[in-house]
């Protein structure tokens, strides 16, 4: 993946924004369990009372509570409370606490934490002493009789010793327990002063719930924004990759096309790029989100209850073990996936493109077996991967449920020991689930990352392929107008990796107004030779010049703009007849198009089409016959009005009459152009100005038809096998 990191640079802003939104989403999501814990602990258990120090307290109750405080706590409380009448908010407090009088006291301090701690310890000391003395047994726990019984106890000689002992116990009690005891006492103080404690509880739950709702909305907005940024980035990178791969392939020559099969290039341009896009859009999002949630959930969970850390550690060890097993077993299969998709596409493409041949030889069964083999290999590989992931998901679920069970079991014991509150245990479960889910997301990465990585390597392989035929750094240019003199200087050519030359020491000159023809047995190198002129291959030895300039020093576009090329297999593009004829010369006039079609002997059948020049042409030209397709290919080349024309066995699909008419018209049209013709039929090249006879890559004869009939035995054999004695005379 790192090999394609340069494609992320234009989208770095989207990437940063996406990560920021993901971080915000994670933080908001990690905040929600705390609010849930507050609703349970404070809203339900504590009646919505958040402080151990009452906002308003009666003078008698304050004096009573001070009796259970240490000297330091008593000083803090005395400084924190002022008479209610002197408090800045006395009116609102009097409304909330209707039974309070001006002699009662109200909290007036910024340091509420110290006052909370003091009242918490005093409340716990009082409660502990009441419990130890039996004053809270039976019905007295809910009435003032408990305080009367306690008062009688404290008036005894050992009363002050009991208070001191209670204060010492409170000093050693955990803060969580002090807080719970304190708010219970505060609730009784409020009820004594006439406050509506039910309203306080309802208001707290509603306010906290509203905050949770706002956080949920913000969380959703962050998730949507992060998804948009990542999706936009993934789509943009995929678009750029498709563009660059396509552009790269359009400059591939035959050497590069031999290295990559057509099916593989299509797979790399579609399926592989889609894998990279999916990773950037979804996988990269999970890859950023999972660590934040995992680490954040771990920190928040441990801060909630450190005593249950071992349960979480056990779950993480099990999860890591499962991920390691998955990584070791499934990773090789993930890497194999794209190669198997390549193979399936190759077999499918051969089936579709060679359908007529397959039917002609009744080999549908053979092709079906090949397809079944490729399809079976891909299916078995995919099933193995899916089974591995299908096993992983229940295992993850088992770990999650087992973790919840352990937390509830041991968390219940902590609650019984007053070391943990119910809401905190519920929050710990949520944080533990976040940690486990983050590992679940990471396990999903084991699906996407290997495939995306393999796909990225395959895409990069195309992008990094060095084109063998390329423009030189300091090109030269043709003088205008181009004359079209083509000369071969002792040219030899060998395919990359081959043991022998395909062409050996070929030398000749082709001039404007002349037709140079090539003939020879199959495999003699005719098509290879003329493919050297437009630089579909570069010569291995020697040189080829156009108007005296070595074609290797010319820009490829400038060279090919000077050539009208007609391949062996006429290929038309999807569009109309006119768009195909204008393909090589978009600015050609209507007269030029009509003239090209007339010379190519295509005017008659074009005029018979329902829409004439605007008749649609299907992909590959499959809705016209082979001869019509060939004539349209010739007309397309002629429309360029180029100084050099190459016809690579172009007339083989034409009947003799059309062939003769086309060559006669072509000779008049190309009086100022250099024409190359590769032919299998001697009749096609009888009138050529020079004929080169090739045999196993060597020129064994050069001259006109009459000259070769006298001097070249190979040509004689070819001519005598095709023409009668009368035609040869």
Could you describe the 3D structure shown?
The structure is a single chain. By secondary structure, the protein is an alpha/beta fold. It folds into four domains: 2-36 and 207-463, ABC transporter type 1, transmembrane domain (ABC transporter transmembrane region fold, Up-down Bundle), CATH 1.20.1560; 59-192, no CATH class; 478-562 and 643-729, Rossmann fold, CATH 3.40.50; 571-641, Rossmann fold. Helix content is 62%, strand content 9%. The chain has helices spanning 12-45, 59-66, 71-80, 90-96, 112-133, 145-154, 159-171, 175-192, 197-250, 254-259, 262-304, 309-353, 355-360, 364-416, 422-463, 526-531, 556-561, 577-581, 590-599, 603-607, 626-638, 656-669, 705-711, 713-722, 725-728; strands at residues 56-57, 81-83, 105-107, 486-493, 503-510, 515-520, 541-546, 549-550, 563-566, 575-576, 616-617, 644-648, 674-678, 690-695, 698-703. Helix 1 (12-45) runs antiparallel to helix 9, helix 3 (71-80) packs across helix 5 and helix 12 (309-353) runs parallel beside helix 15. The protein is rod-shaped. The model is unreliable at 138-143 (pLDDT under 50).
């Amino acid at each position: 993946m790192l090999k394609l990191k340069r494609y992320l640079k234009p989208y770095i802003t989207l990437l940063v924004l996406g990560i920021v939104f993901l971080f915000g989403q994670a933080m908001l999501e990690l905040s929600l369990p705390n609010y849930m814990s507050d609703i349970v602990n404070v809203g339900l258990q504590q009646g919505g009372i958040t402080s151990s120090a009452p906002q308003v307290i009666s003078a008698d109750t304050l004096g009573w509570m001070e009796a259970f405080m240490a000297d330091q706590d008593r000083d803090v409380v005395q400084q924190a409370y002022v008479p209610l009448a002197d408090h800045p908010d006395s009116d609102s407090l009097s409304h909330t606490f209707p039974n309070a009088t001006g002699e009662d006291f109200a909290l007036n301090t910024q340091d509420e934490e110290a006052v909370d701690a003091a009242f918490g310890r005093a409340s716990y000391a009082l409660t502990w002493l009441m419990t130890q003395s039996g004053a809270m047994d039976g019905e007295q726990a809910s009435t003032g009789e408990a305080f009367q019984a306690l008062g009688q106890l404290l008036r005894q000689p050992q009363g002050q010793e009991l208070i001191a002992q209670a204060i010492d116990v409170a000093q050693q009690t955990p803060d969580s327990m002090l807080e719970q005891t304190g708010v219970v006492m505060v609730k009784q103080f409020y009820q004594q002063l006439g406050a509506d404690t039910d309203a306080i509880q309802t208001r707290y739950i509603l306010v906290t719930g509203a905050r949770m709702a706002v956080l949920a909305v913000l969380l959703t907005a962050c998730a949507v924004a992060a998804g948009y940024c990542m999706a936009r980035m993934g789509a943009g990178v995929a678009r750029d990759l498709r563009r660059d791969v396509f552009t790269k392939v359009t400059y591939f020559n035959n050497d590069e096309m031999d290295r990559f099969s057509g099916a593989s290039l299509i797979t790399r341009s579609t399926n592989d790029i889609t894998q990279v896009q999916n990773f950037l859009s979804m996988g990269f999002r999970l890859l950023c989100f999972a660590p934040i949630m995992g680490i954040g959930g771990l920190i928040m969970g441990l801060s909630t209850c450190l005593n249950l850390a071992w349960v979480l550690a056990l779950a993480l060890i099990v999860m890591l073990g499962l991920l390691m097993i998955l990584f070791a077993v499934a990773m090789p299969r993930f890497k194999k996936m794209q190669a198997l998709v390549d193979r399936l596409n190759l077999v499918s493409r051969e089936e579709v493109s060679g359908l007529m041949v397959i039917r002609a030889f009744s080999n549908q069964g053979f092709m079906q077996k090949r397809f079944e083999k490729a399809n079976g290999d891909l299916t078995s590989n995919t099933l193995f991967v899916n089974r591995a992931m299908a096993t992983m998901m229940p295992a993850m679920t088992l770990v999650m449920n087992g973790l919840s069970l352990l937390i509830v079991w041991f968390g219940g014991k902590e609650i019984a020991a007053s070391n943990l509150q119910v809401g905190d245990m519920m929050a710990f479960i949520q944080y533990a689930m976040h940690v486990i889910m983050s590992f679940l997301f990471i396990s999903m990465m084991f699906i996407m990352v290997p495939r995306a990585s393999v796909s990225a390597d395959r895409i990069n392989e195309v992008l990094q392929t060095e084109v063998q035929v390329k423009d030189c750094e300091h090109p030269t240019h043709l003088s205008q107008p181009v004359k079209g003199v083509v000369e071969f200087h002792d040219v030899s050519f060998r395919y990359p990796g081959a043991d022998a030359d395909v062409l050996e020491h070929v030398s000749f000159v082709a001039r404007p107004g002349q037709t140079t023809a090539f003939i020879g047995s199959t495999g003699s190198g005719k098509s290879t030779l003329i493919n050297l002129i437009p630089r579909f291959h570069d010569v291995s030895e020697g040189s080829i010049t156009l108007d005296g300039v070595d074609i290797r020093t010319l820009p490829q576009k400038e060279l090919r703009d000077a050539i009208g090329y007609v391949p062996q297999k006429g290929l038309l593009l999807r569009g109309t007849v006119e768009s195909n004829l204008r393909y090589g010369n978009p600015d050609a006039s209507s007269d030029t198009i009509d003239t090209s079609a007339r010379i190519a002997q295509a005017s008659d059948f074009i005029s018979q089409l329902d829409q004439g020049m605007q008749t649609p042409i299907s992909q590959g030209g499959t809705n016209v016959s082979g001869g019509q397709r060939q004539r349209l290919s010739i007309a397309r080349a002629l429309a360029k009005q180029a100084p050099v024309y190459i016809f690579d066995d172009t007339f083989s699909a034409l009947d003799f009459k059309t062939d003769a008419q086309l060559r006669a018209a072509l000779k008049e049209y190309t009086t100022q152009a250099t024409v190359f013709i590769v032919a299998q039929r001697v009749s096609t090249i009888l009138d050529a100005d020079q004929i080169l006879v090739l045999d196993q890559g060597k020129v064994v004869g050069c001259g006109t038809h009459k000259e070769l009939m006298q001097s070249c035995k190979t040509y004689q054999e070819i001519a005598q096998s095709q023409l009668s004695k009368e035609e040869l005379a």
